[in-house]
Amino acid sequence: MTIFEKIIRREIPADIVWEDEDVLAFRDVNPQAPVHVLIVPKRVVPRLAETTEADQALLGKLLLAARAVAEKLDLATSGYRVVINSGPDAGETVPHLHVHVLGKRPLAWPPG
Ligand code: DGP
To answer: Ligand 1: does its nearest atom lie under 6 Å from the Cβ of 4?
Structure first.
């Protein structure tokens, strides 16, 4: 079981900022910006590379959750970045699909 499944099951604590029946959003333990939230599906999906057409609704929910979190945390006007790391070259470290939402500082592009 991944650390994110344990957070979803409330077996370990997290600073939860948003939730609905399908997704959970909580602050990243190692924030890379003043606001750094992770949004995860409650059901186990390892990574974007392993999603299928059957995950279309869930993937849409994750992006709409990112927008909802951004609005709740006052990022809508200043702007924010939404990131999904899928696989080794992207630096994925937790094999449970997650969307990063980063904001409240200017973010460089291209990423490292
Ligand atoms: P990624 O590199 O895309 O797989 O991002 C995984 C993120 O998960 C990383 O930014 C740190 C975060 N993270 C790892 N363990 C925990 C944890 O136990 N709690 C929280 N809140 N975040 C965690």
So the answer is: no
Give me the domains of the chain, ranges plus CATH numbers: 3-103 (3.30.428.10)
Is 98 an annotated catalytic residue? yes
Phi and psi at residue 59, to the nearest 5°: -65, -40
What is the rounded average pLDDT for all residues in the chain? 98
Is residue 62 within a helix (H) or strand (E), and if so which, with residue range? helix 56-72
Specify whether the CB–CB gap between 56 and 7 falls below 8 A: no
Place of tokens 């990243």: 28
Report whether 42 contacts 98 (CB < 8 A). no
> pLDDT tens, 29-64?
999 999 999 999 999 999 999 999 999 999 999 999
Closest atom of ligand 1 to 6 CA is: 18
pLDDT at 112: 83
